[in-house]
Amino acid sequence: MSSSDIFIGETIGTAVLILLGGGVCAAVTLKASKARNAGWLAIAFGWGFAVMTAVYISAPLSGAHLNPAVTLALAIKDGGWDNVPIYWGGQLLGAMIGATLVWVAYYGQFQAHLTDKEIVGEPTAKAVEAEEKGAGPVLGIFSTGPEIRNVVQNLATEIIGTVVLILAILTQGLNDKGNGLGVLGALITSFVVVAIGLSLGGPTGYAINPARDLGPRIVHALLPLPNKGGSDWSYAWIPVVGPLIGGAIAAGIYNVAFA
User: Fold this and answer.
1) Phi-psi region of 182 (alpha: psi -120 to 50; beta: other; left: phi over 0)
2) Cα–Cα distance measured from residue 96 to residue 81, given in angstroms and rounded to the nearest whole number
């Protein structure tokens, strides 16, 4: 794979991942959406299918890492570090593009949700608490946040979830060359993402992907959304550092136990 193929593949794939994953969050959250209040099950399956779609689209070009933690784990596993910055750059750019497209697709719903007095005029106690911590009423569409703010627990949750994801990819999902997800691996990985969401997503919203959280959080900070609140930058390092630690741990486990 050439550097340009890797960058283009990761940009397109991650954009599709965030468009569909962030899209289901918007569909469930925003006022005037037909899917409003569809619930956590819809979100978990939406993200799983988003992973599957994005992998099938991008795998021929880049191997479909779509996640800096996956790229890091494969570099540790194989000792190949040359293309890591290219993968990471494409993933972050793609995540920002995908988040922007969610805003475009749901533009009217964002406006209705954020300017309606029913939504922002009489906020709930939880909304007030979130606002005090810098989290706006739609930040959860773009990035993750904890239900209970505890640095050790939040970091541990992201590490654990990412270890499960990366071990599944390394043991079940790689293509013949071992440099990305194969056809069957895409299906396996998508269901693993659903499983992580259902079982481990409750505490933090299961970022398990630094680009998935950081790129859309940057877009949230930049977009001209009315009454959007802050982007919760004090928490933002956890869904970046946690998955990277988890990816490194998973690669170490794989090299010791499976290689």
Assistant:
1) beta
2) 24
Query: Is residue 28 within 8 Å of 36, Cβ to Cβ?
Result: yes
Residue with tokens 């918007």: 26
pTM, full prediction: 0.92
Burial class (CB in 10 A: 0-12, 13-18, 19+), 157: buried
Query: Do the Cβ atoms of 214 and 92 come closer than 8 Å?
Result: yes
158 pLDDT above the threshold of 50 = yes
Distance set, CA 78 to CA 63, 81, 186 (Å) = 15, 9, 20
Measured distance CA(190)–CA(186) in Å, rounded: 6
Cα–Cα distances (Å) from 215 to 22, 61, 90, 232, in that order, read 12, 21, 11, 13
pLDDT in tens, 61-84: 999 999 999 999 999 999 989 999
CB 54 within 8 A of CB 94: no
The Cα angle at residue 55 between residues 80 and 167, in degrees rounded to 5: 55
Neighbours of 222 (CB within 10 A): 12
What residues contact residue 84 under an 8 Å CB cut-off, 6+ apart? Answer: 71, 72, 75
